[in-house]
Amino acid sequence: xxxxxxxxxxxxxxxxxxxxxxxxxxxxxxxxxxxxxxxxxxxxxxxxxxxxxxxxxxxxxxxxxxxxxxxxxxxxxxxxxxxxxxxxxxxxxxxxxxxxxxxxxxxxxxxxxxxxxxxxxxxxxxxxxxxxxxxxxxxxxxxxxxxxxxxxxxxxxxxxx
Length: 161
Prior knowledge:
alpha/beta
């Protein structure tokens, strides 16, 4: 089960995607389907079949986004979060091998296409929440148990209301 949280920027990105799909992409594909259907036999019409499939994909994504946006809770940055890891935080961590990673704790719907974003529901994020700089964090996963140290915590100042 995913936690229904999202940053303000993430919410806006999902709304923009919905708007683009509904107002731009869907009408264009609908026109193509109508044109292809007017050519006659649909069973052997590749344009019709391809665009009909594309239309179904768009409709599925639109339904998902509408339901998702309806249920998400936007979490804004507050000054009380400073110094501790909470939702929306950027965290720089390091392990024994001096491997350094920079991560941001965000909602599930925001992680796609970003390697530096992790879901608030991930084992790493759960281990980090509530910690402060210089804390060590033990993360238990199916691959084993790992220890990381928190070097730095910060928040994006543009995430304020």
